[in-house]
Amino acid sequence: MVVVGAGVVGLAVARHLALRGARVRVLERGEPGAEASWAAAGWLAPLVEADGPGPFLELLLRGRAMYPAFAAAMREETGIDIGYADAGTLSLALTGADAEAMERRHAWQSAAGLPAERLTAEEARALEPGIAPEVRRALLFPGDHQVDNREMARALCAAARRAGAEVRAGTAVERLAWSGGRLAGVELAGGERVHADAVVLAAGCWAGRLPGLPRPLPVLPVHGQIAAVSVVPQRFRHCVDTPRCYLVPRADGRLIAGATVERGVWRKAVTPAGLCSVLAGAAEIAPWIGGLPLAASWSGLRPGTPDDLPVLGPDPDVPELFYATGHFRNGILLAPLTGEVVGEMVLGGNPGADLRPFGIARFGDAPG
Question: Which of 92, 232, 267, 349 has the greatest count of CB atoms below 10 A from its CB?
Fold first, then answer.
């Protein structure tokens, strides 16, 4: 079996397959975990990401629920601590429009029985004294988590290899390889063919550009710029967000602020406009951030789809081809779950989840 792409999603699929005894090759054009997985903030926040109840929220919640056991498994299999923490998220309303949107969000979350706690401005400041005086109200999501996404990628690569998967860096897949009308594997640069009984496409925003696909795969980049400032000692205990910015405090003293949403931008670059936007959003949450040292800035290309939902599961016309891409802002959150459910489908087992809402067929039939 071949997995195209060695981000956290592809590595999670490979690890699951290898643990089940499959022979797996992971082919990565660059370095494992060096693209969107490296650029992420590691924030695991289903109730912030979902716009309402339904299959996507259920998928996000199930993904988050896996993290305590997943973090323990990474430590046991590799000795790597992925920085799992469950400090929760504090969402802030700083404007009238923010407050109205927050009331709508709280209404559907309360109706669904979800643990979102409404707070006054005073209650929010009691939890996080450093937030801006303009805060009008807040929602507390106590079940949200975070991880160190870079350590997670490193751990998944080590775990996949330990389980028996071959992870090949610097190996560009040029196209899908076909034989007699059936998918036979992939073709590498230089014409080498790697034969496989099944191919898992986990190449992030590049997945839709791979020649030989049986149908259009509308996955495009969503460029995100992120900054980190130094806060020692750390002044936030929660992840904090508004509709314009999020802040993720890290144990090493960094405070990560992100992120821009630039759809269809293929170039990775930190721009003056993007950096100003991110830092302005951070200073809106806490004005004192404007006086802190800038520790780093970076950007990445998240794989987005027209409906912002991932593409998961088999191709309806090509049983040897499986999709695991399009996770947008939830690749870190959904990687362990994607590894399990897509891996089980590759093996012909029961994924334990209804993936039809996330199937490629929702974008239309293959061209005739």
Answer: 92
Q: Which of 233, 226, 287 lies closest to 257 in space, CA to CA?
A: 226
- Give the pLDDT of residue 367: 56
Q: How many CB atoms lie within 10 A of CB 142?
A: 13
CB 165 within 8 A of CB 26: yes
Instruction: Give dist(CA 127, CA 140) in Å, integer.
Output: 10
Cα 96 vs. chain centroid, distance in angstroms? 30
Contact in structure between 43 and 146 (CB atoms under 8 Å)? yes
Amino acid identity, residue 105?
R
- 60 vs 45: CA distance, rounded Å: 8
Amino acid at 332: I
Q: Tell me whether residue 232 is exposed, middle or buried, using C-beta atoms within 10 angstroms of its C-beta: 0 to 12, 13 to 18, 19 or more.
A: exposed
Distance CA 35, CA 4 (A): 14
DSSP string, 129-189: TTS-TT--EEEEETT-EE--HHHHHHHHHHHHHHHT-EEETT--EEEEEEETTEEEEEEET
Phi, psi angle pair for 171, to nearest 5°: -125, 100
d(CA 141, CA 92): 11
Over residues 56-72, the pLDDT tens digits come to 999 999 999 999 999 99
- Residue 164 CB neighbours (<10 A): 15
Question: Residue 189 — very low, low, confident or very high, per pLDDT cuts 50/70/90?
Answer: confident
Q: How many CB atoms lie within 10 A of CB 3?
A: 34
Radius of gyration for the alpha carbons in the chain, expressed in angstroms and rounded: 21
Cα separation of 311 and 325, whole Å?
Answer: 5
SS3 state of residue 296: strand
Q: For residue 89, what are the β-bridge partners? A: 141, 239
Local structure of residue 112 (DSSP, 8 states): T
Q: What is the pLDDT of residues 16-67, one digit of tens each?
A: 999 999 999 999 999 999 999 999 999 999 999 988 999 999 999 999 999 9
End-to-end CA distance of the chain: 28
301: Cα within 13 Å, side-chain hemisphere: 17
Q: Which residue has the tokens 């992939």?
A: 186
